[in-house]
Design goal:
4-stranded antiparallel sheet; 6% helix; 108 residues
Length: 108
Amino acid sequence: MTEYQAEVAGFFGYWPAFCDGHIVSYENSDNSIKLKIDYMDSDKLLRALIEISFQGTSDVRLSDYIPESVVDTLSILSGSQHWVTLEPCYGLGGSFKCKHVQAVIVKT
């Protein structure tokens, strides 16, 4: 487990793929991307608003954000950089690279 996963994994017991999570806000500016995802684990009846920040972004290839965007899978592959892929059920999707990732629980 990486450092950015600790708080979210501590709450849910695992790092989720954020399947069916609603993207309630999206910001893309100054080589950084910030997502707020409302995610619920229906088996454990746990729900949280999670803010994931990506700093030092490059090679950004994302579709247009639609306020009702829903995640199918959010994957982060780590190496010398992080490779982020956002597969949508609906709305925002695509991929990018970044240097740093931070994930915090905003609200439970």
